[in-house]
Specification:
The chain is mainly alpha-helical and 339 residues long. The chain has 19 helices and no strands. It has three domains: 62 residues; 92 residues, no CATH class; 91 residues, Serine Threonine Protein Phosphatase 5, Tetratricopeptide repeat (Alpha Horseshoe), CATH 1.25.40.
Length: 339
Amino acid sequence: MKKDLLLGIIMLAVGSGVFYFAMTSKNIDFFTVNSLDQQTQTPAPQATDKAKISLSPTPTAKPEISLIEKLKKANNAIKNGELEYASTLLENEEHTEHVLEILIKATLGQGMYFDAEQYTKELVSLNNSKKNIKQYAEILLLSGKVADAKTLLPLLNDTDHKLFYEMIIAVTENNHEVVQLSAENILNSKSSEKYKKSAQIFIDIYKTYESFRDGSPDYLTLMLGNALKTLKFHELTIIYIKPILEKNPNYRDAWIVIGNSYLELRKYEIAEKMLEKAVSLDPSHPISPYLLGITLYEEGQTEDAISQLKTAVKNGYTPRYKAEKILILLFSFIMVSAE
C-alpha cells in the first residue's frame, strides 16, 4: 500500500516537471495561460431582442392576390383617381387584353402618352377591333403624331370616329376647307353628342373669324389651337401654335394657350416659363397670373402662388370664386404648417 502511494507521488512529480519544462521551453508563462484562455474564448451568446423576437410565432405571408382581384382593385383605383396605384398593381402581370385596357386608362390619366401608346399598340396586336384602332388613333393624336394617326383612318371607314379625326388632322395641316366640311358632316350625321359639340366649336370659330374682315391669320391659328386645347389635344396645340411665337414673340395670348397646355400635361417648369412671359407682356391681364398661380401651386411654391392668384383676382379674373377657392386652400395649408 505504502509502495503504491510512493510510486504515485513519484509519477506525479515527474509528470509535473515534464509539463513545466515544455511550458518554459516555449516561453509561456504558466500563470498567464488561464487568463489568455479566458480572453480568447468565444463569449457565450447573449439573449438579444432579435433572439427574443425569433421565439415568437413566425408571421404568415399574405396570400397572393389573384389577377381578377387585382383587376377589380385597379378599376376601383382609377375611379378614385389613384392612377399610379392602378398601374403599380398590374405592372408585373402578363399583358392580356383586360390588363392592357386598364394600363391604358391609368397612363392616359397621368398624361403618360408614350406608355399609353405602347400599351395600345400591344392591344391592337391582340385584337384589332375598330374600338381598339379608334383608341390607338386618338392616343397617337394626343401624342402629337399626326402622320401615324393618319395611316389608321382607312381602317375606320364609315364611323363617326373617322370624321372626327379627319377634322382634327385637317386643323393641324391648316386645311380649312376640310375642317369645315368634316365639321358639317359630323353635325349632319348620327355622330355622338360629344363629336357634334366638338364640330360646333370649329364652325363657330370660322364664323367669328369671317366676321372680322381684317382678321389676322395668326388670330385664326390661335383660335383653332385653343380649340385643340379645349378638346385635350395639348401636344397638338403646342405644335400648332409655336410657329406664331417664332414670327411674333410678343403675342401674349399665344404664350397663355401654350403655357396652359404645358400645365395640363404636368410639365410645370416649362409652363411656368411660358406663363411668366405672358405676365411680363401684360401684367394687367387676369388669366395669365391665374394660370401661373396654379402652376406654382402644383410646384409647391405656395407663397408665390398666392401672390399670383391675388393679382388675378385684382385684375378681374372670372369666375372669381375659382381663384378665391384656391387662395383659401393655400392659406389653410400655411396655417396648418405653421402650427
